[in-house]
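Attaching the record inline, Q. Sequence:
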Amino acid sequence: MAGLTAKLTCPHLMATCWHKFTVCVKFQSSYTICVQKAFGGRFHHLKPHSYRHTLPASETSCKELDSNFTTRRHPGHNHSTIRTFISKHNFCIRHLCTDSVDGIVGRDKPQTVQEAIKYWSKQFIARNVPEAEISAKYIIAHAVGLKQLGDLTYNVLRRKLLDDEQDFVNNLCEQRLTRMPVQYIIGEWDFRNLTLLMRPPVFVPCPETEEFVELVLDHYSPSDKLHFLEVGCGTGAICISLLVELPKAHITVIEKSREACELTKANATRLGVIDRLTIHQDEWGTELPSCLHGNTFDAIVSNPPYIAHEHLKSVGDEVRHMDNGALDGGTDGLYHIKNICQQARHILKEDAFIWLETDTYHSDIIDAWLQQQPNTRLTFIKMYRDFANKPRFCQLQVKKEYG
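Structure, as predicted:
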């Protein structure tokens, strides 16, 4: 359960005990502290009282709030009054997020699945979380055990949430308020016709990458005996999709991230293609990795890091949860692409293709650069557009003859 834990000194009990309460952001620059449970239920159960302390706007997302608490009994009253004095040293937020259903008391607290979706959609909108309603639906559907949004039927939406379900919903939605990607929160995501495990900080595949897979598949037949090399596997979305659709293919992947290698292995095992997949944890730099020496491939497929370094600061908050190494393409975004092109001739068969997912302005630059690099033995074949009609994918080919 999200909230705060504070050390509460109780003069009338002559004891020091721990008191749990939560914080709910009522306005952007103020916090309302609501008492939930007093003294672990061993002494007085306090009715919810609140004390509002207005903070400067610059502190509304602070990681620490501090307060001293004193409690005293009022003659003739059957409840305690909490006096709160904001100071500097006595308590800290357990979770960065302070927007919590736990801070809502009485009839305002969401009771049903539908009410929870509406409540958290509003919270996401208030905190500028993108795709607010769909995020709430995906998270809450997952929290109540549903596999897809279509399972949020009329009867399900009307169903009252159990206490543990409410706690689970709150915990997951609070993660989304920190701009944690929904894929990480849920732990899995659909890619084409596959369901893949998702774990931070491994890069979450984009919808454009599904198109990339379709593009590659359109050029090969299920009966072809092929050996692909994938440079940078991430979740395994590309290589596993190709292996599922091309039952006679084998794929070797090279990936520098240990987390990505482990996740790809887990997904390949789960989907029954691990026996046709070889994973090397290594980095493709300016030299051909030694693990690839002696191999020849029918094609290279890669969705490499291609964001120019200076553009990284403009990526969305969700992307900041992901491995920066899966994003940074160097000064012009082409560092990894050029490394692949410069070494590919050593391991590609004659007439073999290189398939690349790139940034939208890269295709013309790659074409011009290859014309100035005859030693690569590569020629630019074609640029393909994505569903937004943006130039996104490049097809290169090894020349039949050198020069």
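The mean pLDDT is 79. The longest strand covers residues 15-27.

More tomorrow.
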